[in-house]
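Check this.
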Amino acid sequence: MLKNIKKYKKKIYNTKFIILIILLFFITFFTLGILSIDSNNKFLNSLNSIVPHDIKHYIKLKIYGNKILSRELEGIKKESKELKNILLSNKSNTGYLQAEETLISQKDKKKYSLKKFYLSSLNYSNNGHKPIGYLGQFSDKIIYFSGIGESFYFNSNDLKVKKVNLITIPNNLKEIIFDPRFYKNFTMSIKDILILEDDLYASYTKLIKKGCHNTSILKAKINLKELKFKEFFSYDECIDKSLTTEYNAHQSGGRLIKYKDNILFSIGEYRQRFLAQKKDSFFGKIISINIKDKKFNMVSMGHRNPQGLVYIKKDDTILSTEHGPKGGDEVNKIEIGKNYGWPIASYGRHSDDKFREDSPLLKSHKKNGFVEPLKYFVPSIGISQIIEVPSRFGDDYNVFVTSMGKNLKFNKDKEPVGRTIYQLKFNSDYSKIEKEDSLIIYERMRDIMYISNLNGFLMVLENSPALGFLTLENQ
């Protein structure tokens, strides 16, 4: 009996030893596998691929925490140094002519001249994905506003020569906008500017209370020595980031244009889709604000993120552009009181490709009681501003639509997707597009304006970054 017990204990001991050896073997390879970064070993790579990222990250921190943090810190320091060098280089070149190019439209093969003048800021990717800037004209001066609220001006005639002399205009925005995220690499920013007579209006992402934002408007009398802003239009409703998993301040709208005795103001839905269909909410709407008494009315609803607005006075027509989700960017004719369908109808799809019952993105606006877009883009072009093209410019088109996009691509019909000006010619009542062309700019275009005395279009280009001046050759 005793002999059997000893034999049994020895067997258990041997089994434990074998299990321990196996465990040590697997732990060794497991650790090597998850810590290998550029291993060419097929076994380690296959082991690495099946281990969840969170577990790998946890073990790495536990075993090599200090080394990893030190390496990450070195990477951040290196990137910061590179960005500082870029910024210093840009500052030394600010305003100088960077390039002059001839661009040719895709179909008509017309030739355009594009001048690029350096801006001192970092480009869009290195600037926390903030807008690089917006444009307005005051007499013969061009006013340029950066996404973080820096203000400058220069003489429009500078665009004829090799240097734009950007002069800083001090302002009091830091006394009004206290949100620290506004001045750092977050999506809160200036959203547009509008100049009416001697007043400058600026839309921006406003912090209403802790973690809760909306899109509001400031106003200042134009004084090239200093701009003193005051609140012009705001409201209590705001989107609380802590109460939603899909907050996105990029979807905030903010476009401003003059419309008769009013300002038209677009407000995005901050990815709170259901608000676009709520009549008592500001979000997902285009509203009209009376310039004198600030009384407002809803113009249209069912919008996701209206990025562009234009009022064509001679035809009493409002056109807008709007970001779709994944595909479905739109050009719309805006009619008072109409519903444009978001998020019930859209020609795009959700970024995660999942179906949502409250936002089904049905593939017809008209069949579901909404206004059909005049044009939609699949895939998305990163649509931005829309602007009237005066006949004296000499082109065959009456509207330009600018675009951004992560990069320039081509669709199945070999048409450019993003970083392109889409040239549209509408019929007399703007119910149909009669002719189209496109002009590849190879840059994200945040804003565009027409300079009458120079018969050309000035743009904010976000990749260089630069001010771009576009004219038609042989005019």
About this structure: The chain has two domains: 2-78, 94-472. Helices lie at 2-35, 42-50, 53-93, 173-176.
